[in-house]
Amino acid sequence: MFFYVRYAVSYRDLEEIMAERGVQVDHATLNRWVVKFSPLIAAQAQRRKRPTANSWRVDETYIRVKGRWTYLYRAVDRSGQTLDFMLSERRDLAAARHFFKQVIAANDVPDRVVIDKSGANLAGLQAVNVILKFTNCGRTIEIRQVKYLNNILEQDHRFIKRVTHPMMGFKAFHSAAATIAGIETAHMIRKGQIPAKGATAFQIFAEIAA
């Protein structure tokens, strides 16, 4: 399972690779494992990741599902550490607001958030600020719309796209969301976000999954 979400291979590629090493497993079984267990592993990784900075970068990239483009919301801190992610069928105010609430719940309230020129993202953050103003002792989030400051996130998108590209699109939204959860977790491990002394990426992933 780890090798599928970490490297640019298809299920059939992985089935063949494992067969060459004497392990017989059907590609459909690999798919079921990824869809079932990836969200659980991602939740564990979220709880175990190292502390992140309070200056965030938020943007979306595109993932094809059932022949249509969907939107992968992603947030990293100023040093490129993953904060959270969310696959959405829409790119609108409701989706943006939901994602900002999700990432704040998992990482606390940041000092500032950098976004692109998206009106939906701006409106979503402004809606969150209204809530914070009355529930967070008047403290709100500084919003900055400076495109070049999001370059670190644009670069980070590339890893996710490189792994999803051989998959040739997803057949169902729920399986896409689950698979991306596994890919994002593997990426977090690659970036050293999960504390582990001397363990390989595979060993860290296996420990989280245990």
UniProtKB/TrEMBL annotation:
Keywords for the protein's UniProt record, in alphabetical order: DNA recombination, DNA-binding, Transposition
Matching Pfam families: DDE_Tnp_IS240
InterPro entries per record: DDE_dom (IPR032874), Integrase_cat-core (IPR001584), IS_Transposase (IPR052183), RNaseH-like_sf (IPR012337), Transpos_IS6 (IPR047930)
Molecular-function GO term, any one: DNA binding
SUPFAM superfamilies reported in the protein's UniProt record: Ribonuclease H-like
Gene Ontology biological-process annotations: DNA integration; DNA recombination; transposition
Residues in Integrase catalytic domain copies: 47-209
Annotated PANTHER family: BLL1675 PROTEIN
The protein's name in its UniProt record: Integrase
Provenance organism: Thioclava indica
